[in-house]
Design a protein that fits this description.
about 35% helix, 2 domains, Rossmann fold, alpha/beta
């Protein structure tokens, strides 16, 4: 029974892969970063991405980023990919349209006060704290601390949320993920989490990261606000999980091959390839598609 199910599933996937890709009303495309454009080690998995982005933009498309990542690192990634579009950062709480930033500063003091208290509890526990651009730090394979130490990496660029990475320095000096250590560190800091009713705790052991934000802050709202600013009707969204699903009323959704089953079920097109290769596949499909 299981083999029949898997065969049927593969056949359905193949039919979708071979089908034409539906285009959004507007030639505007947002792409998720983590788990879509880059892998768990923050690396690009295809050398063709910049060329593919440029080719589609030459067809009149506007391509930008939509991610839970803070604005400043996203600006760096946008330049690396040669994108000409806009940025939706911190899961929709910050929008950058041609350098003009739209955000709400109401929660900044709340989250920063919480982070200050957590820094204190981490220091008292003997953990070493590093603060800065955590994504770039991990992407380049840098290290800090001595073997046996627990390192707390804090993303200094976040203003409307908090991101903490927990790492253990192994015998070779490499920063390693440790599920038990991550749980202990997070539980120790829990009493200092922001005191808000709709706090979202996103603990991802695959990345060894905890992100704290408001549940009411979602990519859909950020996307709607960005679209209103530009008088758009419908855009495209490339992603890998349901956090990238912004609603079929405002977007066409395209899934990379490593996307969750739930997101694939919602997607208008599923790439055969995972990660950056999947994005390249989708961009090429969009370039060759006809209205």
């Amino acid at each position: 029974m299981s083999n029949k199910y898997e065969t049927a599933r593969r056949n359905i996937d193949q039919l979708q892969l071979n089908s034409e890709i539906p285009l959004p009303t507007n030639k505007v495309l947002y792409i998720d970063l983590d788990g879509t454009l880059i892998d768990g080690k923050y690396q690009v998995t295809s050398d063709e991405i910049v060329k593919s982005v440029g080719s589609l933009q030459n067809k009149g498309w506007i391509i930008g980023l939509s991610s839970d990542t803070p604005l400043e690192p996203l600006r760096v990634w946008k330049d690396r990919f040669g994108m000409n579009g806009h940025i939706i950062a911190e899961r929709g709480s910050i929008i950058d349209i041609d350098g003009e930033v739209f955000d709400s500063r109401a929660d900044v003091e709340l989250f920063q006060a919480s982070l200050t208290a957590m820094r204190s509890i981490f220091s008292d526990a003997g953990y070493r704290i590093w603060s800065g651009d955590t994504v770039e730090f991990l992407r380049t394979g840098r290290t800090v601390g001595n073997p046996g130490e627990t390192i707390i990496l804090i993303n200094a660029h976040r203003t409307q949320s908090i991101a903490l990475y927990v790492r253990r320095v192994d015998e070779s000096g490499t920063l390693a993920m440790d599920i038990n250590l991550t749980n202990r560190a997070i539980n120790a800091a829990r009493q200092y989490f922001p005191k808000i009713d709709d706090l979202n705790e996103d603990l991802n052991h695959d990345y060894g990261i905890l992100i704290l934000s408001r549940k009411s802050v979602v990519k859909r709202l950020g996307t709607i606000n960005a679209m209103r600013n530009q008088n758009l009707i419908q855009v495209g969204m490339i992603g890998n999980s349901m956090t990238d699903y912004v609603g079929s009323d405002i977007a066409r959704h395209y899934a990379v091959g490593n996307a969750s089953d739930e997101f694939k079920q919602k997607a208008d097109f599923i790439a055969r390839e995972p990660l950056t290769n999947g994005v390249v596949e989708i961009l090429r499909k969009l370039q060759s598609a006809k209205r």
